[in-house]
Amino acid sequence: MSLMPSIFGRRSNAVDPFTLAIWEPFRRAGDETSQFVATRVDWKETEEGHVFKVDVAGLKKEEVKVEVEEGNVLQISGDRSREKEEKSDMWHCLERSSGKFLRRFRLPENAKMEEIKACMNNGVLTVTVPKEEIKKQEVKVIEISG
After folding, report:
1. What distance in Å separates the CA atoms of residue 28 and residue 26, rounded to the nearest whole number?
2. Which residue from 4, 10, 64, 98 could staple onto 78, CB 3.0 to 4.6 Å apart?
3. Bridge-based pairing state of the strands 49-55 and 41-45
4. Which tens digits make up the pLDDT trace of 10-62?
5. What is the per-residue DSSP string for 2-23?
6. Is 114 exposed, middle or buried (0-12, 13-18, 19+ CB in 10 A)?
């Protein structure tokens, strides 16, 4: 989620320090790069960890990749195939996106990279990243002599 909404009312990841989304300010509808941004992701932090939910309706798990790069960058990518067209077909509406998608997120230092889990259910990919408990520094009282 963006820390700052855009002036046009849509959420933008351009100013979010944790996201590494590809952003092209001059993209046109139908551009290949527009598909990268079109994939919707929700990211929430709980006491136990970080949970990412990605809309991947119509995709099989073999068509989606979840990877960790550079030690702490979560990358979610895939490819939506376009429906085969027959010459006799006449489309009245074509809104579903197709093509490759890619989203990248820089994870915080306390993320447990070796325990990341991913599952798909009803067109939603859920990636769970547990986090280490941050130990509170104990306050040590120093006696003053003299």
Report:
1. 6
2. 64
3. antiparallel
4. 444 444 555 554 444 444 444 444 445 468 899 999 999 999 999 998 899 99
5. -SSB-TTSSB-STT-TTB----
6. exposed
**Measured distance CA(98)–CA(141) in Å, rounded:** 62
Distance CA 38, CA 80 (A): 12
Each residue of 76-99: pLDDT tens digit?
999 888 777 788 888 888 777 778
**CB distance 31 to 98 below 8 Å:** no
Q: Full-prediction pTM beyond 0.70?
A: no
- Amino acid letter, residue 66: V
Tokens found for residue 111: 């993320």
**The total number of residues written for the chain in this structure:** 146
